[in-house]
Write a structure and sequence with these properties.
Layout: E1 4-8, H1 20-32, E2 36-41, E3 49-51, E4 56-58, H2 64-71, E5 76-78, E6 89-92, H3 96-100, H4 105-108, H5 116-127, E7 132-135, H6 139-145, E8 150-151, H7 166-173, E9 177-178, E10 187-189, E11 194-197, H8 206-223
Parallel strand pairs: 1-2, 1-6, 2-5, 6-7, 7-11, 8-9
Antiparallel strand pairs: 3-4, 10-11
Protein name: GAL3B protein
Length: 224
């Protein structure tokens, strides 16, 4: 039987939704490994809409489910309908939508709250001992919800290659253990069944980001 994996999206576009290359890489690697992806997103308004040419917010209003459907080619379900019993694993790609639409990390950092619906899904998979894959900024969700967990967002020392390394320090303040890793690697927290990889937290060539996500997907399926 093919493993059934829920993929949770947060919109469409790096600055206000899910990072499209990361979401696509997750879907490609799941397909390559013979797993069945089921894509979900919350039916909520986006925090805001960003013009990806100018890098500036606009006055537009968009819906997270509707925008996520662009990546899923229309084959998507409302997160409210997710039933953990019929699924083997959960994967959450990154993108600022995780920090803006699934949580308030973008504005509040370690003092953020996670969407009740998203938190309930994460806790359900965790309670069922089913693996959760996280990439880029999405490990902050686990850091907030599961104190003491182990995750990676790459490195904890800021430099040209790791421009978002301060995220690791904020996660440590939440009581989680941050594991430094390379962009092509995934870290496995066996106790919590969490698998994380840095993806675009690293200023790396896109094929290396793709390879790291592949490592994460394979580890998730190994645990499923």
């Amino acid at each position: 039987m093919a493993k059934r994996v829920a993929v949770l999206l947060a919109g469409c576009g790096v600055f206000d939704g899910s990072e499209i290359h990361e979401a696509s890489a997750v879907l490609v690697h799941l397909s390559r490994e013979g797993a069945q992806a089921e894509v979900y997103a919350p039916n909520i308004p986006q925090m805001h809409v960003v013009d990806h040419v100018k890098g500036q917010p606009t006055a537009e209003q968009r819906n997270v489910l509707v925008e996520s459907a662009r990546i899923a080619r229309g084959n998507i379900k409302d997160l409210a309908t997710l039933d953990v019993k019929g699924l083997d694993a959960l994967i959450i790609p990154g993108g600022f939508g995780v920090a803006k639409n699934l949580s308030t990390w973008a504005t509040q950092g370690k003092n953020c709250s996670v969407s009740k619906e998203v938190e309930a899904v994460l806790r359900a998979f965790h309670a069922a001992h089913k693996p959760i894959g996280l990439c880029c900024i999405s490990p902050v969700l686990a850091a907030k919800i599961f104190p003491g967990c182990e995750v990676t967002v790459g490195h904890d020392t800021e430099c040209e290659q790791w421009p978002y390394a301060k995220t690791a320090e904020a996660m440590k303040e939440l009581g989680c253990r941050h594991i430094n890793s390379q962009v092509t690697e995934a870290h496995v927290d066996a106790r919590n069944r969490l698998v994380s990889t840095s993806a675009f937290m690293c200023n790396a060539p896109i094929h290396q980001v793709h390879d790291g996500i592949g490592s994460m997907v394979r580890e998730v399926l190994r645990l499923a």
